[in-house]
Amino acid sequence: MNEPSPPSLGFLLRNAYAALAEHVYGQLPDRGFPEIRRAHSSLLRHIAPGGSRLTELAAAAGMAKQSMAYLADDLTALGMLEAVPDPRDGRARLLRLTARGRKLYETLVALSAEAESRLEAELGATGIAALRHGLTQTIARFPPGLG
Amino acid sequence: MNEPSPPSLGFLLRNAYAALAEHVYGQLPDRGFPEIRRAHSSLLRHIAPGGSRLTELAAAAGMAKQSMAYLADDLTALGMLEAVPDPRDGRARLLRLTARGRKLYETLVALSAEAESRLEAELGATGIAALRHGLTQTIARFPPGLG
DNA sequence: TCTGGTTAGTCAGATTGCCTGACTTCTATT
DNA sequence: AATAGAAGTCAGGCAATCTGACTAACCAGA
């Protein structure tokens, strides 16, 4: 009931992420992508234009390949992703966006940009830059696997 | 493999939160609280000194009371929390921190403060203020349940 | 004072988003 | 060839939520 006078940075970060994600992903149903969930972004954010391997995507997102496989299966079932054999390695498949998947990707980019420019109207260009810088430094200063 | 030139704000927010949370919660085992997980913060952040009701905590954290009950059971089993009947309402229980729970709470506050001051050394007081302001505005500008 | 609506919490069950371990298949190196 | 390692699959598990249905208790009004 009583949030301590200055809310902790962790609290702010968590809620800011939740608010922004809700804003962006909450609009997807209206844009024709009702089945896309937040978790899918772990794949969508990292997929290369020419296609990517499952293992690459898992490494880029920092998750187990089994977890990425689950997301890939999902997006494939939704018609956003297709898998073709990698001609350079018989074990591997290349995952790439279908036409509809590219549309989804572009929609997400556009919604993100719209949200950011809305925020920029509030904070100004310097404010946004400071926010980005602060976040980037937070990531850099607290690397995974350190005390 | 190729993070697009400016990483999206969502990406930054998610990773900054993850990095900070990992930093803080990763130190808890060394501080004598090996069983505390991130989810517990949803309860710990909102509990009042004199004790809080389950329903209050759930509302403050924005989650279902059943979910908060799960966290409360957990913290109770770990000896951090105890429940006493609310003298003012026979249906309700007051949840409050035990001595060990208060120690945990103080440890979390200290670790948070330490992390923030480390970041302040990097960003300066103005940088931290700008970061906080940006996050606060993000939360305010993208309220739950809106397009 | 009974009664009906509301609130506090519990019970049961489901889902999402991850995880680990064990395995197969293929590649590449020796 | 033989074998080590990498790509991906299969099976299973767990954490952190959710919804729906319920009981017990409180409270306001007839």
Automatic annotation (TrEMBL), chains A, B:
It comes from Rhodovarius crocodyli. One of its GO terms (molecular function) is DNA-binding transcription factor activity. Gene3D superfamilies: Winged helix-like DNA-binding domain superfamily/Winged helix DNA-binding domain. It comes from the Bacteria. Residues 6-140 form the HTH marR-type domain. The lineage of its organism: Bacteria, Pseudomonadati, Pseudomonadota, Alphaproteobacteria, Acetobacterales. It holds the Pfam family MarR_2. This is MarR family transcriptional regulator. SMART domains: HTH_MARR. One of its GO terms (biological process) is response to stress.
